[in-house]
């Protein structure tokens, strides 16, 4: 099974072009087939996340919920009224599906990177048991002064990587709440709560939807780029 996966991975390598400046450079230096396959997966995941965000933006070009649904606002009840559910439902479901897939795919970029770390540093953690905590603990014991160890420790520090916790919480929350963490206001724009588990709206603190998703994508990209620099030194 692994051999078939590796053959497939090597076959599609030329068409993978994630917007990560050093991904290709590292890929060209990898001789181990299993590691090359995992590196391809990381790059593919990130490129998929980029594509999904572009798709979401194209579905709501004005950044307002009215691109998806027909609504009116009742000032007396302070509520939005949705019109024509037969038209609304397929469009909303398509949007929510793209949104959930974006969160899952972006977060899995980090998971795939950790599998690369496991291989390059020969940590010998079974793939199905690889987590940020296990990788971090092994790195601290075996490579305490390595630059990558600090890079991974920063990921667990909210003051250094608030974005990582937010992304993880948001992904976990939408998995069980049907994306109810998307919130709207009287301006019909989409927002994400400053607290990824919040259900109420506070425009003064909440994040504009696409601005926050773009930030999460950029932060993930920066983390991977720096991490790839450290991995390259091990090859």
Secondary structure: number of strands: 5
Task: Calculate the mean pLDDT score and round it.
Answer: 83
Query: What structural class is derived from the secondary structure elements?
Result: mainly alpha
The coarse silhouette is: elongated
Counted by DSSP, the helix tally is: 8
Computed Rg: 20 Å
Poorly predicted runs: none
Beta-strand residue percentage: 5-15%
* Physical arrangement of strands within the biggest beta sheet: 3-4-5
Helix content: 55-70%
- End-to-end span in angstroms? 26 Å
Please describe the biggest sheet, giving its number of strands, its sense, and whether it closes into a barrel.
3 strands, antiparallel
Order of helices and strands, N to C?
HHHEEHHHHEEEH
Q: Please, how many domains?
A: 1
Please, could you describe this protein's structure?
The chain is mainly alpha-helical and about 240 residues long. It has one domain (about 1-230). The chain contains 8 helices and 5 strands. Helix 1 packs across helix 3 (about 35-60) and helix 3 (about 35-60) runs antiparallel to helix 8. The longest helix has about 35 residues, at about 85-120. The radius of gyration is 20 Å and the shape is elongated. It starts with a helix and ends with a helix. The relative contact order is 0.13. The mean pLDDT is about 85.
């Amino acid at each position: 099974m692994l051999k078939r996966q590796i053959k497939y991975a090597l076959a599609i390598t030329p068409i993978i072009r994630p917007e990560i400046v050093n991904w290709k450079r590292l890929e060209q230096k990898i001789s181990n087939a299993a590691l090359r396959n995992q590196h391809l997966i990381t790059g593919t995941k990130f490129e998929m996340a980029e594509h999904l965000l572009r798709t979401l933006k194209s579905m709501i070009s004005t950044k307002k919920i009215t691109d998806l649904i027909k609504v009116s606002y009742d000032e007396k009840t302070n509520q939005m009224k949705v019109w024509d559910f037969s038209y609304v439902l397929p469009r909303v479901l398509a949007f929510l599906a793209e949104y959930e897939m974006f969160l899952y795919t972006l977060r899995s970029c980090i998971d795939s990177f950790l599998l690369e770390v496991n291989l390059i540093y020969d940590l010998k953690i079974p793939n199905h048991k690889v987590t940020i905590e296990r990788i971090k603990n092994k790195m601290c014991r075996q490579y305490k002064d390595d630059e990558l160890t600090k890079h991974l420790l920063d990921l667990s520090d909210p003051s250094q990587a608030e974005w990582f916790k937010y992304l993880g919480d948001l992904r976990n929350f939408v998995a069980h709440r049907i994306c109810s963490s998307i919130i709207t206001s009287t301006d019909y724009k989409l927002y994400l709560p400053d607290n990824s588990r919040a259900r109420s709206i506070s425009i003064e603190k909440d994040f504009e939807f696409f601005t926050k998703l773009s930030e999460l994508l950029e932060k993930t990209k920066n983390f991977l780029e720096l991490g790839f620099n450290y991995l390259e030194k091990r090859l």
